[in-house]
Amino acid sequence: MKETYCDFVAGCFGGACGVFVAHPLDTIKTWQQASNTSVPTAIQQIYKRNNGINGFYRGMFFPFVTTGGINSILFGVYGNHLRQLRRVCHSDYQREQLEYKNMFIAGSIAGFVQSFVACPIELIKIRLQTHHYYNKYIYGHKMTPFWMFKRIIKADGFSGLFRGLVPMMCRDVFPYGIYMLAYRYTTTYLDQTEFVQQRRRLRSEDDTQVDFVVTTLAGAWAGILSWVCVIPFDVVKTIMQAEENRQYRSIWHCLNKNFKRYGWRSLFRGSWMLVVRAIPFNAATFLGYEYALEWCHKYFQVQIKSSPKYY
Fold it and tell me: pTM of the entire structure?
């Protein structure tokens, strides 16, 4: 029970760290995908239409608070399912042979569960980020997350909060399995290098067992690898969530219409910014997660039989 609690707490802290570091890049990426513009044009439009540098942090408070909750669900569900999958193994040998497979399954299940919570949150965040107005007011109302929530409910009903759920599940389910698997595989590989082993020998028992370099590199690489294969789904999700007139009936209708109108390159709009954003976001997320998990395990005196930092 304490292990599960630690997973949720560490995931929450890691998610908040990721948002704090990478939100400006996320705003540029979202604006690019919603308006089909280049990076310089998106930066210029965000700066001009939002009264300077503050535009890059528009809508940050909402994801800063909520992304912690989303990551809490993601890492909590992942850690719990991974432990359950390990328990059904009949021997240590079988557990070792199925470890990577179990990580992929647990990560995919976690991605599936968190998508139902993340969809309404990302919808509100994207609407706040892409609203084409020069100030924070529209029709005499301040554009807050709660005001946007009420606006969506009034216009589309409760189901409107799940606009773009299908492309989001295509983006999150299997890629989160790849995400967890890539992180574990990379940390295992880096731990075997002479550079890292030498750093560990110089570390005292009282020092943190989290290696800053390994966690940063592994987190960044896992983020890049899990994103590059699903960029079109993220573009479609952003387009469907940003528009308010519901001109797209489905994910395939959106894909087909944008392909005919702008060509295949439009389906990869914002890909460079997405990859650039993935580096600091996922590095910060895993750093926050690992440090918080280690502290939580010490605080609750949780004993882990194998290395805890990747589970």
Answer: 0.84
